[in-house]
Design a protein that fits this description.
Blueprint (H helix, E strand, L loop, with lengths): L12 E4 L2 E5 L10 E4 L2 H9 L6 H16 L6 H16 L6 H15 L6 H31 L7 E4 L16 H8 L5 E5 L6 H12 L4 E4 L4 H6 L5 E4 L3 E3 L4 E4 L2 H10 L4 E4 L5 E2 L16 H5 L17 E4 L6 E4 L2 E3 L3 H9 L2
Parallel strand pairs: 4-5, 4-7, 5-6, 7-10, 8-11, 10-13
Antiparallel strand pairs: 1-2, 2-3, 8-9, 9-12, 13-14
The structure holds ligand LNRAV4D5.
Length: 352
């Protein structure tokens, strides 16, 4: 999918002629830097270092990276198919928690296999076509999630978000933030409270940035202010994204999401999880089995570019946590609003 001016926020990932372009999310909000990538190694690095981040966005970047890796291969069947699997496995190793990464790569490899026996050049084109299809579908899915979320919200509501599940984290529009963009198109007004989301500050650096770019009312708060804001009665709904929903409805998302969910429950505030089907993993039984990425201590002790803790201090830096299904009011997918019992209802909706 090419750059699309009509999208109401900066686009984080797009295919340009013969290579992948990424808006470097590590540099936002103070610098707008585009990376031009031509190899799977560069894509792996961009995913691992959060130059591109957000479950759907990393899946999209990875499958374009898969095409970048195979397009120059010789037209020799044995080499091609072995390399396709190797590059897909390599890209899949960039980050462990968001299931979109493996989901997207598996979908493209499986699609390619349906062309076995065709000339290798045809298979290469099919891979690019499927990567583009995943990208374009994600934009439609995000808008559909936004539509379904809007049925749960009222004009003028206070909405609390955590991390960034916005346009920057997806093909466009975002998942948790999608209703905000659709509401803006309809003249609705929400008051958004964005958790800064330590340690990488996706809320401060990205959610506040993209919502302000779109002219949406957003107030930045420290993560430790969420309870006080809820207690003031300023929040009528919490909406978050997800990196992986387990078969029983447990939700892996950015670290701190579990705390927000417990606070929401304590204040009787609905806690909504925006989840494209590509983020729901029915093969993972519960949240206990979801791999949680452990990231560098540097993000905690010097993430803002200068030391904020004693040198050598021990650090625990899980990038995600798991919110048990009992704290989740509803999971909103492109197919509609799914409520408990999640094991049965997720299976029914996703398996048709
Ligand atoms: C729709 S994005 C889902 C999810 O991805 C983010 O994680 P990261 O910034 O580390 O890629 C965050 O958990 C979002 O909620």
């Amino acid at each position: 999918m090419k750059f699309n001016q009509a999208i109401p926020h900066p686009q984080s990932v797009f295919w340009q002629e013969d290579h992948l372009v990424l808006l470097d999310q590590r540099r936002l909000p103070t610098e707008t830097v585009y990376l031009h990538l031509t190899t799977p190694e560069e894509v792996w690095e961009a995913i691992a270092t959060l130059a591109v981040r957000g479950a759907p966005a990393i899946g999209i970047a990875a499958v374009y990276g898969l095409y970048l890796g195979v397009r120059g291969l010789p037209d020799q069947e044995e080499i091609f198919w072995a390399e396709l699997e190797r590059i897909a496995d390599f890209l899949n190793s960039a980050r462990p928690t968001a299931v979109n990464l493996s989901w997207a790569l598996k979908r493209v490899v499986n699609k390619a296999k349906t062309f076995k026996g065709e000339p290798v050049s045809s298979v290469k084109q099919a891979i690019l076509n499927e990567a583009t299809a995943i990208h374009e579908e994600d934009v439609r899915v995000c808008r559909q999630i936004g539509e379904h979320l809007l049925t749960l919200l009222q004009d003028g509501m206070g909405i609390l978000t955590h991390c960034n599940a916005g346009g920057l984290a997806t093909g466009a529009y975002g998942t948790a933030l999608a209703p905000l963009y659709l509401a803006r198109e309809r003249g609705w007004k929400f008051k958004v409270f964005a958790d800064e989301t330590r340690p990488v500050l996706q809320g401060a650096r990205l959610t506040a940035y993209e919502l302000m770019q779109a002219g949406i009312d957003v107030t930045l708060i420290c993560d430790n202010m969420a309870g006080a804001v809820m207690k003031q009665g300023w929040v009528q709904a919490v909406i978050v994204g997800t990196d992986r929903v387990a078969a029983n409805g447990d939700v892996a998302n950015k670290i701190g999401t579990y705390s927000v969910a417990v606070l929401a429950k304590a204040h009787g505030i609905p806690f909504y999880v925006a989840a494209p089907a590509s983020s729901i993993d029915l093969e993972t039984e519960t949240g206990e089995q979801i791999p949680i990425e452990q990231r560098s201590p540097e993000e905690v002790v010097a993430g803002m570019g200068k030391p904020i803790a004693p040198e050598g201090v021990q650090v625990y830096n899980p990038a995600f946590d798991v919110t048990p299904a009992e704290y989740v009011t509803a999971i909103i997918t492109e197919y509609g609003v799914i409520r408990a019992p999640y094991r049965e209802n997720l299976k029914r909706v996703l398996n048709g």
